[in-house]
Every structure is written in C-alpha cells, then in structure tokens.
Amino acid sequence: MYTKNEVLDFVQEEDVKFIRLAFFDVKGKQKNISIMPGELERAFNEGIPFDASAIDGFEGPQNSELYLLPDPSTLAIIPWRPATGKVVRMFCNILNPDRTPYEKDSRTLLQNACTQLKEECGIEMMVGTEVEFYLFKLDEKGEPTSEAFDKAGYMDIAPEDHGENIRREICFTLEQMGITPEASHHEEGPGQNEIDFHYSDALTAADNVATFKWIVNTKAASNGLYADFSPKPIPGQAGNGMHINISYRGGADNLLPYMLGGILSHIEEITYFLNPVENSYNRLGSSKAPEYISWGKENRSTLIRLPSAKNEQRLELRSPDPLCNPYIALTLLINAAIEGIKNKKEPPAEVKENLFDETIAKSCNLKTLPKSLTEAKKLALNSSFVQSVLGALLK
User: Fold this and answer.
1) What's the distance, CA 218 to chain centroid?
2) Alpha-carbon distances, residue 94 vs 80, 160, 181, 209, 391 (angstroms)
C-alpha cells in the first residue's frame, strides 16, 4: 500500500522507466497511457489528460478532456517487462477538468459504494472471485481457432490437462504483482480453467479481476494460445462464470440474511450488468449455470449458495460471467446489500430441491433470471434502483 511519496522514491530507486496509468471504459475494458518518470509528480498533482471522446461510452467531442489521477496504493511492477528499465502500473481515478470525480468512472462509483456501506451500515464488504476461462489454439496466422487446448475435464491432471504449466505461470505472476491466488484447476469444459482468489475488500477484488484477465491474456499469447473469457465459448459445453463470494467484517452479527434479501430483491434488474452480452444468456440455465432466482445452503443448483464452511458467513452468487465490469457489478451488489440491511429485508424461503432437474425446478414455481440481453436491458433501464445507483452511466 504505497503512498505518493513512496511511489516517487520507488520509481527513482528501482530504475523504473515507464509508468502505465490504467483505467476502464464503461464496459470494464482496460485502457492505459504510459508516461515517463519525469511526468509522475504532475500526474499525482494535476492528473494526465486524455481524449474522452475516443473512449466507448464516455463524452462527445464538446466536453472531451478528462484527467487520470493515479492511485499510489495500486503500484505494481509488470514482471514480464524488462528487469532493467522497469515498467510499473497504477490504476487511476478519472477527474473532470475542475477536479471533481467523473460520473462515468466505474472505479469511483465502487469507491463511493464502499464508503456508503461503511457509513450507513458500519461494515466492509469482503469479496473473493472464481474466474473461468478457455484456452484455444491459434492458426498459422496467429488467429484464434475453435480448437480447445486439451480435452481434459473437471480437476483432471496431466497429461490430459495441458493447462497446468500456464496456470502455474499465471499464479506466479499474480504473486509478483501482489495478488494472492487461492486455488487453480482444470474446469469441466475442454481447455477450460479456473483460478480463485482469496477474499479482499471490494475495490481490491475488482482491481484484482482486471489484473488477472490482463495476465491470463498475456500468458496465453506468450504460449501461442488464445484466452477466451466469453460466457459460452463452445455450444453444449460448460460456460465461463465468475462466481462472486461475499462476506463482511465489522458491524453487527447476522447481517448476511438481510444482504441476501437485498441482492435477491434486485437481481432481475441488475442482471444486465452481471451478464452483459447476448452470449451470456446461452450460458444461464445450462451446464450447471443458474437460471432460477433462489438460494440454498450448500445447494449448488441455486442462484445463491450459502457454503457450509465453519465459523464463516458468506454467500456465493453464481450468475455473473467474466465479461461483466467488476466495478459496476460490485457497486450494484453493495447498494442492494445496503438496502437489504437498512430495510431488514428477509430472503424468500430456502430452496432445497435440485434445480438442475427441470421437472423438479418447474414444480417449485420460482421466477427466472432474464432470458435474453434485450429483456435484461429493459428491466435495468426501467429500474429506479439501477437509475439511483448508476445515474449518468446509463446515458
């Protein structure tokens, strides 16, 4: 957790030659601009300008100048760049020319949500993610093919599992960048992999997901492969999910049921942001991805699962996929949790049935998640809750 002055000293003492200032568009795609060390103090004091009209979802040409303000606590060496003349990265907040926060900066939205949760409920949300991805081979021109890297299945080992070396590289690189992976393994689909993270505060968790996807794409390319985070890369095979594990620290005991109630009450409206592409809806309801709005203890067929871990209160939301903007996803989930806690929203009855059995599931008379991107978008745009949380981001 570096301070501004510590970063300035680090850059001078550690032979840093380039500083990458990273930020995100409204869809969560990472962007960056590189500066030289001589510009770093100006970046901290004034911000580095960029053309917002060239960023998808940002401003038009009339109000296009925005500024990147680096967050010194996110400093990390990029380990695959040269050791001599190092390259480092910091995530940034986006400012208007008058130094006010830019209202479409999803990272700032999440920071504000974390502050609100602390001030109004006295707690901090802790988040751990489980992110899945496929590895595909490249053709002779270096373009992605539809041929999976291997034909292994869930938690298989080498020689069937061809991805263990790449996962090891990814985990080592994560550690070098200050991120602690919890576990990694081959997933159900051919060429499909998963890496899980230890829990952290919500902002750090979102930063970690962004860093992770960058590392995976980089390591796949360096091994002559293509990493695919899309929700349903191969029809008929398991889709890529991004399970979000939520707990909290501080405050009163037994707030988790209210958080659960708040999230379930708004899950239809926020699905558009948890599952943001048409392909997302090919995943939901198939190959063990959830479809019904439900929760259950130790029940992996429900939308939200409460694990059986001793001395731990957490919930696992199983619908999001890796193409979501993690900053927006967590902003919405935190605000839903706040509403649940403040209004003491009790969740509906627990579901104990196996919802993967379609006959049983239909007999339970449960509501389903939206069936298409169009339906999900309509629910989101008509939601006063979403409007109150995201505001200008929807324009």
Assistant:
1) 18
2) 27, 46, 29, 19, 17
* E strand segments, 139-191: 144-148, 181-186
Which pair of tokens denotes residue 64?
């296009």
Which tokens sit at 165? 């070396």
Only one residue has tokens 């943001």, namely 276
Q: What is the pLDDT of residues 240-268, one digit of tens each?
A: 999 999 999 998 889 999 999 999 999 99
179 touches 236 (CB < 8 A): no
The residue written with tokens 């920071």 in the block is 111
Distance of alpha carbon 185 from alpha carbon 191, whole angstroms: 11
CB 295 within 8 A of CB 364: no
Alpha-carbon gap, residue 117 to 334, rounded angstroms: 7
pTM: 0.96
- What distance, in Å, lies between the first and last C-alpha atoms of the chain? 35
Segment holding 265, helix H or strand E: helix 256-274
Which pair of structure tokens corresponds to residue 139? 């053709």
CA distance 28 to 323: 8
335-380 residue pLDDT tens: 999 999 999 999 999 999 999 999 999 999 999 999 999 999 999 9
The rounded Cα 1 to chain-centroid distance in angstroms is: 21
DSSP 284-329: TTSTT---BS-EEET-TTSSEEE---TT---EEE----TTS-HHHH
Rama region for 289: left / alpha / beta (φ>0; ψ in -120 to 50; rest): beta
